[in-house]
Amino acid sequence: MSLDMKQKKPKGQTKFGKNCQKRAVLNYTVIDNGVKIRKQKAFYGKTLKEACTLRDEYKRKINKGIKPDDAKVSVSDYVDKWLALKQKNMNVNNARAKDIKKYIGHMRIGDVRRSDIQFMINQFSDTKTIRGKYPGKKSVESLRYVSHQVFEYARLDMIIEMNPVQSIDIPSYEKSKVRPLTMQEIDNVLNLEHKWQKIFIILLHSGLRRSELIPLKWKDIDWDNQCIIVNKSTNFISNQAVVKYYTKNEASNRKVYITNQFKSYLDGLYSDDSIKYRDRKRLNEALICPSLTGKMFSETQWTNMLKKYHTDYELAYGNPNNYHKNDKRFELTLPILNPHMFRHTFCCSMFYAGIPVNIAQRQMGHEKASTTLDIYAQCENDETTRKEIDEKMSKADTRSPQEKLLEAIFSDGKFPTRLLK
Known about the structure:
Number of helices: 16
Strand order of the largest sheet: 1-2-3
Helix content: 40-55%
Radius of gyration: 31 Å
Mean pLDDT: 77
Low-confidence stretches: 1-18, 388-399, 417-421
Shape: elongated
């Protein structure tokens, strides 16, 4: 590589003009498919020192194997290229890729600095979604992860020298407490006819975790002892549910006893599936809550199921604003029913029924009794739920709020007495 330094006086300007520029020229050789190609590049600055600094920086990058000219491509174009290359090889979050293009897509990929990425993360976390909610911690972490993948690919492709997504901070999030369902929400869930209604009814009457419900099969129902055997769980890996033949902790490997009403409900579902499968062996191996494909829910299918349910729930009981029938996107006016809220409702029902903490702990599969006590304390201090129940039913019924909420979940108003033995 040979160097040649020259000064240049642009046309129309004198040597001593105010805007007179200095030029530093870099002559170098590149090898392309075994053929040597001589190239020349000029760098301009107000002073010769400034021009030489730009030239030396360019030379340093070339000596490291970096392609400075390719760094002029926009982030938006490079994200499209990255998606085309990676789409078939990995689980790509297209929504987060669109967010990258939205915030920094106009910039050159070589000009992006750590401060630009941090600004994008902060802006994303402070912007409401189309449903009127702020992005959660998982969404923000997903944006950081996809950004890291894009710029790491550019670094390995010798387009940039360093990955600017290193050491990016995520805004702090307060861990929100999961509340139990209100009486009105329980009534809405039980009365809403929906193709996914059985998922929420099972969660409400059993207190299962999502990871325990997805792999649940009919052979896991002990009809004689009237209980659900929980001995496995699932994890989402590359969007697919993978069965683990062990539970979250040792205490989660348990038997969940059910009421007569819930057993009758499961009997009805079992009868419907028996017509479909006919062979009892195949029926016992069938999933109780399969996806539309008949297999276990993938992470995407589970998310889409919840979105569909909440959309129909909003249309049935809410007052949606700016509803568009074509894209079915609008701002939700009712609280989103997190599946874990059904689990806390089940635990609260045991509190209202006077079930001792140690028995409730076994039913819930909590490793520590303090976890159950925290939910019990939340139920005891939740005056809002009690007031809502009182306002709705006190005029028509003289029973206590505990008995009313209990009957909404257990028709006979009693928890299985075998638990007290």
